[in-house]
User: Which sequence fits this backbone?
């Protein structure tokens, strides 16, 4: 009997990659809707489902999955802060994630945000579309010789730092574990407060956990230089958005590039252009001329998505064979 796998939150560009990878390994049905309390009932009868980073995998959804016969959740992302792991274990659900994929996809996009806000690319593009070719308000700064502060120096943070080194920047790092390769590159590890105070560019590359939520809070923001650039391509909950808006209203920061937002669930990956935005904080944030917000697309390269899909397939095959890999967050009971 062919087992149908249900995949939620599948983007149009992602669908052919998923269908091609799973060909010969079972029937996979791709849905563009996200898994939440409203959509969870359609999982009934599906032993295996796959979810995206913005899926709701809280206890309420997990109970519906378990009651409907689901036994395995294969999440197509590295982060798993959206999953109630304790509830999944109690309900007998196996949960797996993608532990790694191309670090260059996120690191390069973080640099795209950096350059865009530093050199006012969006404003310049908008002007030229209107045949306004003035340079007023478009002055940026050389990054060569300035300081890049990297919070989180794992694979993505290392890739980001290597690009910064290529620009000729001084490197400061902060992490619970130092990366020897970056020390060899010339990075100096310092306390977070010193990194924030001395950096012209601060980029976040740490996972979202209880201890890192609002890592960049009001106190951290005030410690940063008034003309600094802040980039977050990791997880929205790392930044206290209300505190950030307060600092922006005070005229601080050369630029802020955000690919993630702490209340992005229910917004990002969806077309909300014809609806009123009820999120006042996001509506305020996007009005600042020195802020660029994108919708969690840093990972979205053909290379990275192909790796994510491949790892998801391996997770499903491991589950079927009773194997356990480093990707398993909650093992098969």
Assistant:
């Amino acid at each position: 009997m062919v087992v149908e796998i249900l995949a939620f939150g599948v983007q149009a560009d992602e669908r052919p990659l998923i269908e091609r990878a799973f060909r010969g390994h079972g029937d996979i049905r791709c849905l563009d809707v996200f898994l939440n309390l409203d959509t969870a009932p359609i999982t009934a009868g599906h032993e295996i489902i796959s979810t995206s980073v913005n899926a709701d995998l809280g206890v309420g959804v997990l109970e519906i999955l378990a009651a409907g016969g689901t036994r395995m959740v294969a999440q197509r992302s590295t982060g798993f802060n959206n999953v109630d792991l304790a509830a999944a274990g109690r309900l007998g659900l196996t949960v797996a994630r993608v532990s790694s994929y191309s670090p260059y996809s996120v690191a390069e996009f973080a640099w795209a945000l950096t350059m865009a806000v530093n050199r006012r690319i969006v404003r310049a593009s908008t002007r030229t579309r209107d045949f306004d070719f003035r340079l007023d308000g478009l002055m940026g700064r050389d990054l060569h010789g300035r300081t890049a502060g990297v919070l989180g120096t794992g694979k993505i943070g290392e890739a980001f730092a290597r690009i910064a080194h290529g620009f000729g920047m001084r490197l400061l790092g902060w992490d619970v574990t130092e990366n020897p390769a970056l020390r060899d590159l010339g990075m100096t590890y310092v306390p977070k407060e010193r990194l924030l105070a001395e950096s012209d560019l601060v980029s976040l590359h740490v996972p979202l956990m209880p201890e890192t939520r609002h890592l960049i809070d009001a106190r951290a923001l005030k410690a940063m230089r008034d003309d600094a650039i802040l980039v977050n391509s990791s997880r929205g909950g790392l930044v206290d958005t209300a505190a950030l808006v307060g600092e922006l209203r005070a005229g601080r920061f050369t630029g802020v590039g955000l690919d993630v937002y702490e209340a992005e669930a229910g917004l990002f990956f969806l077309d909300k252009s014809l609806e009123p935005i009820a999120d006042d904080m996001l509506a305020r944030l996007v009005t600042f001329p020195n802020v660029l917000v994108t919708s969690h697309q840093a990972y979205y390269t053909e290379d990275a998505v192909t790796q994510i899909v491949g790892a998801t397939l391996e997770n499903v095959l491991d589950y079927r064979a009773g194997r356990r890999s480093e990707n398993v967050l909650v093992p098969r009971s």
About this structure: The chain has two domains: 4-101+302-330, 103-293. The mean pLDDT is 95.
